[in-house]
Amino acid sequence: MWEYASAYGLARKHKMKLAINSDTSLAWAFPNMTATLLKAQNTKDFTVIQEHRCCSYDKTFESLPQRNALIKNSYLQSFKYFHEYKAEIRNQFTFSAIVQEEARLSLQLQLIDGNHRHSVFDNQSSVTLVGVHVRRGDYLSSNNQRIGYRIPDIHYFVRAMTLFRR
Q: How far is CA 17 from the centre of its chain?
């Protein structure tokens, strides 16, 4: 999602059309997305651009080729790429009705009180849900490690969860 938001912002800034890999599940989950879906094999003639370091704004992306730029193996983790277009991006990141219903049902099943068989959703004001996504696979690649991506240790997550319990 972050990569999409940044790529969207860059495309808007450079008056280009955004196309994303047609294999992505983003289009199914977020039907308001405006990007064109493109098969990977149709990008052979594109100019490939990659970020040079992680978790920062990369000035390389301030001047893109005017045609067929392919941003590859880049996470683009800086709000500076898209902050001008955040309202448009938020609209595009509205979950489809199917995803919303599946999430609601899944959470409801997870939060049923085993002793009383009532849902904690009956009193939503007393419930705060916090999702944790631990990204590991792609961050462990040698190329990503080389440009600075790291995996936090367990203590990072313990401290973060402590903050939410306060």
A: 19
CB 82 within 8 A of CB 89: yes
Choose the weakest-confidence range: 23-27, 38-42, 119-123: 119-123
Nearest to 76 by CA among 65, 66, 87, 64: 64
d(CA 51, CA 73): 8
pLDDT digits 0-9 by tens, 97-116? 999 999 988 888 877 755 45
Burial of 71 (0-12, 13-18, 19+ CB in 10 A): buried
Look up the pTM and report it: 0.72
Cβ 8 vs Cβ 35: under 8 Å: yes
Spatial distance between the Cα atoms of 20 and 76, rounded to a whole number of angstroms: 15
Residue 13, φ and ψ in degrees, nearest 5: -60, -35
